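*Target chain*
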Amino acid sequence: MCGVNPMQTPTTETPSIEQLYEEQIRSLTPEQKLRLITLIAGELTEQIHTLPQPRRRSLMELEGLGAEIWQGIDAQEYVDQLRSEWDTKP
């Protein structure tokens, strides 16, 4: 290849990960592969730390959700009905 980096050579199609592995990585020594993994892991670690953290959610945000389902239903009567079904089901 005489110093030409195939990753920087303009192509019409980006090689797949599988192609990169077969053409560039498979032939590396175990030590080179470990070094490559270390470089990738380090870069990923940096990227993860710069990602925006998701907003923490509170269970209280669900308060009142689905309230319309229970309109006109007496809570105690509903519970009593459920409990009476316990006696009739095996």
About this structure: The two ends are 76 Å apart (CA to CA). Residues 30-50 form the longest helix (21 residues). The chain has three helices and no strands.
